[in-house]
Fold this sequence. Notes:
Layout: H1 2-8, H2 19-27, E1 38-41, H3 47-55, E2 60-64, H4 67-79, E3 86-90, E4 103-109, H5 117-123, E5 128-141, H6 148-157, H7 164-173, E6 176-183, H8 187-207, H9 212-231, E7 235-244
Parallel strand pairs: 1-2, 1-4, 2-3, 4-5
Antiparallel strand pairs: 5-7, 6-7
Helix pairs in contact: 2-3, 8-9
Amino acid sequence: MDIFFELHTDLPREGPGDNESTIKAFSYLKELPSDPFIVDIGCGPGMQTIQLAKLTDEKIISLDTHQPYLDILQEQAKQHKVDEKIKILNHSMFDLPFEENSIDVIWSESSIYIYGFKEALRDWKKLLKEGGFFVVSEVSWVKKNPPIECLDFWNREYPPMVSIEENLRIIKNMNYTLISFFEIPKSSWMEHYYTPLKRKIKTLKEKYKRNKRILITLEKEMEEIRIFEKYNSYFGQVFYIMQKK
């Protein structure tokens, strides 16, 4: 885990995404109360949190377990002059400290996979108010019959990954109302995530060139980038915007 956090420290984001997609997803949240209670779960360094803070006048709770990410978020929030709108909370998503029927918006970009898409929709639903919104981005198959190399990679790295259609069925079966869904641009994987990650990998390969264990870890990270560059027409990061009935 030490090398993971060394590799991922100071990246703009901890997963694919961009401010434009965050704004687009938020635009679907109609008839929010004047003082919405918003929780960003698994916020990482919080680029999306800062953007959300610019879209609302109310305080957002930003939750993560890695304090260096939260420290970065706090500093960035000050620079963007939204620090008074963001409350930092170092806490696990596996034990959320919120009352039932208390949250207006649960937001989770590129992090719900840690808990599980289906499991989070099931377990966190009770925290939402009636009519509350659940907004999540999740890696999903967007095209059928991926090449075996691509399929094998994702079966190893994220076996629960399913198609957009299957996720829509999960949303329906969990008794949410689907508001909308859309795939973020492919460029959003590279600009704020994979491109800076590649630079970090190159630096760390030189730093740890005599440490075989770390080099194997770094090579696994590069494999993910190569799979994306070669097969990204078959999978993507998809926003799902839904509402508790």
